[in-house]
Amino acid sequence: DNSRIDGRNCLEYRPIEIETNFMPQTHGSVRLRIGNTDVLITVKVEIDTPSLDRPNEGKLEFFVD
């Protein structure tokens, strides 16, 4: 049998949609839809002053929701 549970054959893929810069209040954003799966990715950037004890180092923080 060469089919999946949802009726597609093994070589068929779900429709893919990519939408970029859909959230204007961010520095970058992507919305990715694959079938019924919807993934949102956003990037916001903030430049800060380095700490006094590490003046040549930066900091990177990220959050997953």
What can you tell me about this protein's structure?
The chain is mostly beta strands. It has a domain at 15-46. 0% of the residues lie in helices and 29% in strands. It has strands spanning 16-20, 28-34, 37-43. Strands 1-2-3 form a three-stranded antiparallel sheet, with no helix packed on it. Strand 1 and strand 2 form a beta hairpin. The model has no long low-confidence stretch (mean pLDDT 89).
Provide a quick synopsis of the model.
By secondary structure, the protein is mainly β. It has strands at residues 16-20, 28-34, 37-43.
Element pattern in H and E: EEE
Which residues form runs of ≥5 with pLDDT under 50? none
The proportion of residues forming helix, as a percent range, comes to under 10%
Strand order of the largest sheet: 1-2-3
**What class do helices, strands and sheet pairing give?**
mainly beta
Taking the alpha carbons of the first and last residues, their distance comes to 39 Å
Average pLDDT level: 89
Percent of sequence in beta strands: 25-35%
Shape: elongated
Largest sheet, strands/sense/barrel: 3 strands, antiparallel
Rg estimate, integer Å = 20 Å
Count helical runs: 0
Number of separate strands:
3
